[in-house]
Amino acid sequence: MKELTYKEFAARREAENLRLIDVREKDEFAEVHVKGAELFPLSEIRAGELPQEDEREIAVICRSGARSAAAAQVFEGAGFKECINVAGGTLAAIEAGEEHVERG
C-alpha cells in the first residue's frame, strides 16, 4: 500500500486519473466529503462487499487515515492493484481549502 498526503494526492489526482473511495459512513459523507469521492463504507467492505474494479488506481480516504488504511489492505488482499492511502484524510482536505470539499 502506498501512502500520500492529501496535498500529494490532490496534485496527482487528475494527471493520473486516480479514483477516490471514501470509506466513512453515510452520515459522515453527507456532512462533508472530497469532491468527486465515491462512498463505500468500511462497514460494507468488512461485510464482504467490494466496489467494482476499473482500470484506475484507487486512492482510499476516511476522516484521518486509519480506516482508509484498513480498507486499502482489504482491497489489495482481494486482488485490487496497489492502493493509495490518503494520510490525513478528509480533515486534511478541509485544511487544504473549501474548494476541495462538498458540504451537505
From TrEMBL:
SUPFAM superfamilies: Rhodanese/Cell cycle control phosphatase. It comes from the Bacteria. CDD domains: RHOD (cd00158). InterPro entries: GlpE_sulfurtransferase, Rhodanese-like_dom, Rhodanese-like_dom_sf. Residues 14-102 form the Rhodanese domain. PROSITE patterns: RHODANESE_3 (PS50206). It comes from Lujinxingia vulgaris. This is Rhodanese-like domain-containing protein. Pfam families: Rhodanese.
